[in-house]
Amino acid sequence: MGGRRQRALAVAAAVLCLALALAAPFVVGRYTLRFLTSTLMFAGFAVSWNILGGLTGYFSFGHSVFFGIGAYAVAIGMVKAGLPFWVSLVASGLAAALFAVAIGLPVLRLRGHYFALVTLGIGEVVRGVVSNLTKLTGGGGGLSLPIFPGGVDTIYRAFYFMMLGTLLASLLVVYGLLHSRIGYGLVAIREDEDAAQMIGISTTAHKVLAFALSAMFFGVFGGIYAYWLTYIEPADVFDIKISVLSIIMTLLGGLGTLVGPLLGTICFQLLSEFLWNRLLEFHTAFLGALMIVIVLVFPRGFIDAARGGVRGAFRRTVANVRQFAE
Predict the structure, then answer these.
(1) What are the backbone dihedrals phi and psi of residue 167, each rounded to the nearest 5 degrees, phi first?
(2) 213 is a domain residue
(3) How many domains are contained in the chain?
(4) Please, which residues have CB within 8 angstroms of residue 189's CB and are 6 or more apart in sequence?
(5) How many CB atoms lie within 10 A of CB 227?
């Protein structure tokens, strides 16, 4: 009975949150709606990055490359090829996923910090290439996209619902993975890749699939972002900050969980907005301090800390401090 009650409460909470999300564009102001749209996008980053980093255990510092590929796929498709936005948006997800497969086959053979460093390097290489393809990408001057048709309120609501729909799609994919054999295989790789391979799990196929799914959603978000801003440049869409923030928000909520990245994003965005408006000079310092707190106090996120209670969090903090001191 306890399990049924918990599932019923979870479903009721999800329905309530969805109803509030659907109603928000019609009751809040434009500034708040823009903030909510950005929050949905960052939540999508965290949920998508969690597929590879949380479920599979491979920490990528180069996911901004997929965001940039998606943004330029839409920009080039609309500006250079004259394609409709929705066709270009599909191409953005496919381009990011195919690029992930291409680099994933060799790169996913690496582990730990070697994998993290290589993904970071790939992002910088791609940004340099895009910056030099002036005829195709506009180079450092960037590309300007056409404006979404309709009035100001229509535009704000349209991009809000685009971000919301993509976020919901990513959540459904993560939910499906958590309750499927593929997801169990990914978790097995995260816990002990050698043991997973010994029991017959195709680790390469699982890792490449997780990489491609994670990249695909980043690409779609990048495509929506490009049309939303109507102007992109390499420094903006290939920014490593996108990757770093995705990791922070996922760690803050809880690795390998469904709602953890959402909770982490909401908490981070609210704190970031507060500091940006009131303590602008400490905004960047806050990001660094937050990472230290997460590692020391909440190494498994808010969800795990809530399960273990205050004493558990205190014991983990003491243990982590001792480990770093040694």
Answers:
(1) -60, -45
(2) yes
(3) 1
(4) 56, 57, 196, 201, 203, 206, 207
(5) 24
> What dihedral angle (degrees, nearest 10) is formed by the CA atoms of 164, 185, 52, 267?
60
Find tokens 């969090």 and name the residue: 313
Residue 187 counted as domain residue: yes
Q: Are strands 143-144 and 231-232 parallel, antiparallel or unpaired?
A: antiparallel
The answer to whether the CB of 71 falls within 8 A of the CB of 237 is yes
Q: What is the pLDDT of residue 16?
A: 92
Please give the C-alpha separations between residue 180 and each of 16, 175, 177, 234, in angstroms, as whole numbers.
26, 9, 5, 38
Please give the model's pTM, rounded to 2 decimal places: 0.90
Residues in the chain: 326
Look at residue 95 and tell me if it is in a domain: yes
Of residues 263, 247, 253, 254, the one with CA closest to residue 214: 247
Output Rg (C-alpha) for the chain, integer angstroms: 20
Please give the residue range of the domain that contains residue 139.
31-240
Amino acid symbol at 263: L
Mean pLDDT for each 10-residue chunk of the chain (326 residues)?
Answer: 72 90 94 95 96 93 95 96 95 97 94 90 93 90 91 94 97 94 94 92 95 97 96 93 90 87 88 71 69 67 57 54 51
pLDDT at 321: 47
- CA angle at residue 17 from 187 to 150, to 5 degrees? 110
- Alpha-carbon separation of residue 319 from 291, 316, 322 (angstroms): 17, 5, 5
Burial (CB count <10 Å: 0-12, 13-18, 19+), residue 37:
buried
pLDDT, residue 291, reads: 67
- The set of residues, in sequence order, having a beta carbon less than 8 Å from that of 300 and lying 6+ positions away, is 254, 255
- Which pLDDT belongs to residue 111? 87
On whether residue 320 sits in a domain, the answer given is: no
